[in-house]
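=== Per-residue structure ===
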Amino acid sequence: VCPQCGGKGQVQRVERRGYSQFISLTACPRCRGSGKDIRDPCPECDGGWTRKRQKISLDIPKGVDSGMRLRVAGAGEPSPDGGPPGDLYVVVTVRDHDIFQRDGADLYLTQEISFPEAALGATIEVPTLDGKKAELVIPPGTQPGEVQRLKGLGMPKMDGYGRGDLYVRLKLVVPKRLTSEQKELLRKFEGGDGSKKRIFSRNRS
């Protein structure tokens, strides 16, 4: 037992101001609030504690997102009265992906397609988060900017039930260089020789 505080961990301080008397309680400077007298204190901490950096193992659950807190029991600050230590809370920040954009459990991907693929339809392969390829069916007449959904190919859900979806934004790529034959085919498709100016018209409802 600490002889200075009698095992209470606190000492009383009396201060007089004129005819008034103020009493305050502070942590015992000898035992540092523990109430115990350490006769052979550690030379490094002098009977208290020291701060050290320590690496710990942390299990990251599937589907974790930025801003979520993960609790590590018993890895916090030590208790001043000798009780169990507190907990450590780790705030997660998820780095951006080079290919996918995330919205909760759903993922978004931009995929380039050619004019023939958009006009005639096609079946293409798109990347997935697992590193595999998934088939995506492009229907004939697909317009630029349309979004196709691949169900169940998004992020794992935090509750452990199922996954989100993968949404593929289709971006039409216009070739910068065409052969004479390709230009002629496009002119025939347009229904002219390509020399006529197109007149802007506004649809009126």
